[in-house]
Amino acid sequence: MAALTTSRIEELQLSSNHLTDSSCPHLASGIRNNPTLRTLNLSVNNLKGPHFRDLMAALTTSRIEELQLVGNHLTDSSCPHLASGIRNNPTLKTLNLSDNNLEGPHFRDLMAALTTSRIEELQLSSNHLTDSSCPHLASGIRNNPTLRTLNLSRNNLEGPHFRDLMAALTTSRIEELQLSYNHLTDSSCPHLASGIRNNPTLRTLDLSGNNLEGPHFRDLMAALTTSRIEELQ
């Protein structure tokens, strides 16, 4: 990591290296003010712990554009550190947090920081997110000027607050939304309908692996006729 600071490396793959929280200060020193590194893949390690904050603090002064943190045992307690890393970050465009467990009260911190980040693609699949996360997701995407791709697949967003997420979708700039395998049912169809009806930006919507059969499915199909969707799964 010390040598990384004087290299010209633009892409570094460190996935599946049994890295732990104790590696975070060294990773932080490697990326802090590094002028060339653009892509960093730290997936399938175990970076959860008190020093994760060091890595996120260094992220704010790096030039990284893509950060992969898939499968790192990150939990709700990691969200404030993630938030500090992306808040007003001028370079980060892609953040992959899939296969962690971010559900909890601090998830709102991450979503609040999303509103002032420059992130264009956010992957949150398989994070044990539930209906209670929907208001925080809604605040993160509402009028967000940069976010274009949001992957929420393989969570459990079915419930009364799902309407909040769909209401915020109407004023977001999202072009691709992944909602596969979210235990969505027929009762979600009116909210889905309100989210896509006359939405000017959404082009791809994935609803695979849900259970939308029922009388309200007609609402979704009626709204489809006035949406701008080009691909529907």
Structure description:
This protein is α/β, with parallel strands linked by helices. The chain has one domain (3-232): Alpha-Beta Horseshoe (Leucine-rich repeat, LRR (right-handed beta-alpha superhelix)), CATH 3.80.10.10. The protein has helices at residues 24-31, 52-59, 79-86, 107-114, 134-141, 162-169, 189-196, 217-224, and strands spanning 11-13, 39-41, 66-68, 94-96, 121-123, 149-151, 176-178, 204-206, 231-232. A 9-stranded parallel β-sheet has the order 1-2-3-4-5-6-7-8-9, with no helix packed on it. Helix 1 (24-31) links the parallel strand 1 and strand 2. The longest helix has 8 residues, at 24-31. It starts with 10 loop residues before the first strand and ends with a strand. InterPro entries: Leu-rich_rpt, Leu-rich_rpt_Cys-con_subtyp, LRR_dom_sf, RanGap.
